[in-house]
Amino acid sequence: MCRHLAYVGPRVALGEILLRPPHSLYRQSWAPRRQAHGTVNADGFGVGWYAPGDPVPARYRRAGPIWADASFADLARVVRSGALLAAVRDATVATPDGEAAAAPFAAENLLFSHNGAVPGWPLSLARLAGGLPPADLLELAARCDAALLWALVRYRIRDGYPAPEALADTVRAVAAAASGSRLNLLLTDGEVIAATAWGDTLWYRTDPERGTVVASEPYDEDPLWTEVPDRTLLTATRTEVLRTPLKEPAA
């Protein structure tokens, strides 16, 4: 389910990343090439981006398919940014939350997205949810697995975890609680992208002149695209990428 993408690099129009490439995230909403779970990502979409001098990202999210929103094409044509995170959503379970369930989720200077699914949701994560402060549960943006995963990540970051380690620790905890989960998480603060490959595809392309893109799948045929091995934590800036193996949780 879902396709998502994050970019850090020179300022570009959002459409240069999200709409213009031949296999862009826009096209992946109805014709993904490497999506193994689900076929059409039409249950919502969103993009968050950073403006110069402002560390808090702006967001544009909708409950319907990206291709049905004529206003988004105009926005993407004129808004420019050096960092963004965007997603198109294929929901596993219908919810009444509308655009609140569409990534990216946000808090302070962070943007977050989840590509995957948690078997047995919500009961499978009841114990992990019970370990969160009550205020965190009351502040959940939506009643979906991605919103709870975001709360678990935020809790770890507030507890002092660096963002990449917060992703990795959350993935291990959720995988232990719900075996068979697909947990490709994506997080950025506008400078660094952190991501996990756990049960679904993840690729990256980095170029000193064009910046770095981390995505569920390549949006063009550029030979610089590199697939990330499953069970990997990826940390990327606009010029560098670090890959760290993720261990399976103890039985």
Automatic annotation (TrEMBL):
GO biological process: ergothioneine biosynthetic process
CDD domains in UniProt: YafJ
Alphabetical UniProt keywords: Glutamine amidotransferase, Hydrolase
GO molecular function, one term: hydrolase activity, acting on carbon-nitrogen (but not peptide) bonds, in linear amides
Family matches, as InterPro entries: EgtC, EgtC-like, EgtC_Actinobacteria, Gamma-glu_amide_hydrolase, GATase_2_dom, Ntn_hydrolases_N
Classification via PROSITE patterns: GATASE_TYPE_2 (PS51278)
ATP-binding recorded as keyword: no
Reaction catalysed by this enzyme: gamma-L-glutamyl-hercynylcysteine S-oxide + H2O = S-(hercyn-2-yl)-L-cysteine S-oxide + L-glutamate
Domain of life: Bacteria
Pathway note: Amino-acid biosynthesis; ergothioneine biosynthesis
Gene3D superfamilies documented for this protein: Glutamine Phosphoribosylpyrophosphate, subunit 1, domain 1
Glutamine amidotransferase type-2 domain segment(s): 2-251
Catalytic activity, EC: 3.5.1.118
NCBIfam families, per the entry: ergothioneine biosynthesis protein EgtC (TIGR03442)
Role summary: Catalyzes the hydrolysis of the gamma-glutamyl amide bond of hercynyl-gamma-L-glutamyl-L-cysteine sulfoxide to produce hercynylcysteine sulfoxide, a step in the biosynthesis pathway of ergothioneine.
PANTHER family: GAMMA-GLUTAMYL-HERCYNYLCYSTEINE SULFOXIDE HYDROLASE (PTHR43187:SF2), GLUTAMINE AMIDOTRANSFERASE DUG3-RELATED (PTHR43187)
HAMAP family referenced in this protein's UniProt entry, alphabetically: EgtC
Record protein name field: Gamma-glutamyl-hercynylcysteine sulfoxide hydrolase
Organism of this sequence: Streptomyces palmae
Origin organism lineage: Bacteria, Bacillati, Actinomycetota, Actinomycetes, Kitasatosporales
Gene field: egtC
